[in-house]
């Protein structure tokens, strides 16, 4: 086999991250649906659970997880356009947006998918079932969609999307969209002329859910043309950025631009409280766990916590995977030279985001064998 296989779904959040990256590398790619029988016979025995995305390399290796897929290609030396910026300060910023994109935008992604049934449901039903159970009869289709949509509606509540928070989720998303639009009006990608881990994190919610599902798609096209164009750009091999050739070069590089500072400030206000609460909750929880409960691969969610968000009290799932992504940010920041660290602090402190580097969990999270584990 000479090509790369990606098991995923067009409507899957995390598949979008892996797909976008693999396309940008120009690797020969075949996408397969989880309804393909080889997903059951060859993939699930290795991942140990039903989960996408999963990549199968030409050598037959199987890799689950968007970040691990990217790192596998990078470490094999096959990235034609690395997701890791060469500038170490930009690398930390990219890792922050990888965390925020993949984990911090789940509320709007789930809200705009599951709370606008009149616009979305006929599309979602066909889109889900065509990849989960291609060729199924009408009765089976209805059953498959009822089951998968029921699970996802439950997950939405687990991320803090409830009728009490709908208005705040919408206000938060529209604010974010306006800030991202202002930035992408000047720069084709988050950090300038090349896609980075930051873009791959953001494309996860902004592709499958927020640009593709009927209701939020219209919202994005109405309010954020430049974000919509970036989504198109992120799903092609080439840059699809003709409009930038026709406009003058940006006055300041993306990393130093006020529009990026505004996005960092948004993360500080909107997502930092959850990260800080999650680290504190886990530190208390870890201290109470008998050692044998921390051995073995983890469940994705280890409990629920309540934290203040936009004047509300949200109860959400605590997911150690997020700590693993946070560690990547903190490790990259810790490795900076003193002068680079100063440059990073000069970006984070005015935005109110410096505490992201100090919100730490007493025990590290590791990923191996396609799962998260507590470090020994
Ligand atoms: N950390 C994983 C998350 C993957 C994930 O949550 N995938 C979703 C689809 S977008 C899934 O398979 N959910 C099924 C389940 O959790 O049961 C990654 O980045 O690949």
Distinct ligands: glutathione
Task: Tell me, rounded to a whole number, the average pLDDT.
Answer: 97
Strand content: 5-15%
Shape descriptor reads globular
Q: What is the CA–CA distance across the termini? A: 38 Å
Q: Biggest β-sheet: count, sense, barrel? A: 4 strands, mixed
Instruction: Name the helix and strand elements from N-terminus to C-terminus, one letter apiece.
Output: EHEHEEHHHHHHHHHHHHEEHHEE
Q: How are the strands of the largest sheet arranged? A: 2-1-3-4
Name the descriptors.
single chain; 376 residues; alpha+beta; Glutaredoxin; two-stranded antiparallel ribbon; 16 helices; 56% helix
Q: Could you characterize the architecture of this molecule?
A:
This protein has 376 residues and is α+β, with helices and mostly antiparallel strands. Among the domains are: 4-75, Glutaredoxin (3-Layer(aba) Sandwich); 270-374, no CATH class. It has helices at 13-25, 37-47, 66-75, 88-104, 106-114, 117-132, 138-158, 166-184, 197-208, 214-223, 225-234, 242-245, 258-270, 272-288, 320-334, 338-351, and strands at residues 4-7, 29-32, 54-56, 62-64, 303-309, 312-318, 365-368, 371-374. The strands form 3 sheets. It has a 4-stranded mixed beta sheet with strand order 2-1-3-4, with helices on both faces. It has a two-stranded antiparallel sheet with strand order 5-6. The two termini are 38 Å apart. The structure holds glutathione. The site of glutathione has 10 residues, from helix 1.
